[in-house]
Specification:
Strand content: 15-25%
Order of helices and strands: HHHHHEEEEEEHHHHHHH
Radius of gyration: 30 Å
Structural class: alpha+beta
Shape: elongated
Number of helices: 12
Number of strands: 6
Number of domains: 2
């Protein structure tokens, strides 16, 4: 009982410290990436914090799994360095107690990892995709920030807005440079607003001038206008809006589909995604158990070496998990054989490590049996 409480308390301290460091690093990287996307016009600045939260939710299971693996490894490594393992063994503690203590401590975290992977991962991806699609469906003009030049999604237009839209939806001081059809067209207008006409969305410009010429030639044309419409995009047709559920589901990325739907499908891409979702919590469990024999290293080895080994083992397992997903998607492996090959191999490695570190009972030899 004393071994269980003291070891779980130490693992909790290491887990809290590891999680804080890893989460801070991942949050900083995600913040830089999403800020860059917002600056380039690929994400809505108003959805910045929501996008960061969804991205953190998508990566949280990996942070928890790695923090848990490091916590178990460092706790048992400290006991080996301080010779506490010898003391506990002399007091009657068995290797099975160490594994059970690690499992009891890890059980709540492993449950959270499973829920995040099976439920939270597809939900976060759906919400992120919906936010980005709503932003992409907006016009190029509405995506442009006041005071900045913005390139359109096709790359053929450049927009500049001097002042953003007011309460009436009017933007002011508009500049548009268009390079389509081999001609350069520069349009300046005092104001602009969006309007839907003839199943298309138009940018209605007011009080401006249009300068047009063919690239490489001096055939300039200058036109003044009181009002002019620039077609921005086509509106969705009723037939497109009324797609059946099966067609919509077929066009949905596998990472956005809920887990029960994946389990009922024979689609190789969906089975590959399912193998990945099952593999994340299973790999976290096996890594926790693998940390116990990995901690039984040379006491003179530094902590940095053990952390490097922990990160390498985690990354190798994760890479094999992704490779197995791609093999299942390509039809090289079936779902059951892929899971058995990957996690069965990891289980054999775990047993070999435990046997090499004398954490499993060895068969009695002839002399010992006599």
């Amino acid at each position: 009982m004393l071994l269980d409480s003291s070891l779980r308390r130490e693992m909790a301290r290491h887990f809290g410290a590891s999680f804080t460091v890893l989460f801070s690093v991942v949050l900083t990287l995600l913040l830089i990436r999403i800020l860059g996307q917002a600056t380039e016009g690929l994400a809505n600045p108003r959805d910045l914090f929501l996008l960061i939260g969804l991205a953190c939710l998508s990566y949280l299971q990996f942070i928890l799994g790695l923090a848990l693996f490091i916590a178990v490894l460092t706790s048992f490594s400290r006991m080996h360095r301080d010779s506490e393992m010898v003391i506990w063994a002399g007091a009657g503690a068995t290797p099975g107690q160490f594994f059970r203590t690690a499992l009891r401590f890890s059980a709540p975290v492993l449950t959270v990892i499973a829920l995040l992977t099976l439920v939270g991962w597809p939900w976060a991806n759906r919400q992120d995709s919906a936010l980005r699609q709503r932003f992409e469906q907006r016009s190029d003009l509405s995506r442009a920030a006041p005071g900045q030049f913005r390139r359109s999604a096709s790359g053929m237009r450049v927009f500049f807005i001097g002042k953003g839209a007011d309460a009436q939806g009017l933007a002011h001081d508009i500049f548009i440079r268009d390079l389509s059809d081999g001609r350069e067209t520069v349009t300046v207008a005092r104001s602009a607003a969006l309007a839907n006409r003839d199943d298309s969305r138009y940018l209605m410009l007011s009080d401006g001038h249009r300068y047009t010429h063919t690239l490489g030639q001096a055939d300039y044309q200058i036109t003044g206008f009181r009002e002019m419409g620039v077609r921005v995009s086509a509106l969705s047709s009723p037939a497109t809006q009324a797609l059946p559920g099966a067609a919509t589901l077929a066009n949905t990325p596998s990472r956005e589909i809920d887990t029960p739907t994946l389990a009922l499908s024979a689609n190789p891409y969906w089975q590959g995604e399912l193998s990945w979702r099952i593999g994340v919590p299973v790999s976290s469990l096996l890594l926790v158990l693998m940390a116990v024999p990995l901690a039984a290293t040379n006491p003179r080895a530094g902590r940095a070496l053990q952390l490097i080994v922990a990160v390498l083992v985690y990354l190798v397992y994760l890479n094999f998990l992704n490779a197995t997903q791609h093999w299942i998607e390509a039809g090289t492996l079936h779902l059951g054989s892929g899971l058995l090959l990957l996690h069965g191999g990891a289980l054999l490695v775990l047993l070999a490590l435990a046997y090499a570190k004398d954490l499993l009972p060895r068969p009695l030899g002839p002399r010992a049996a006599a």
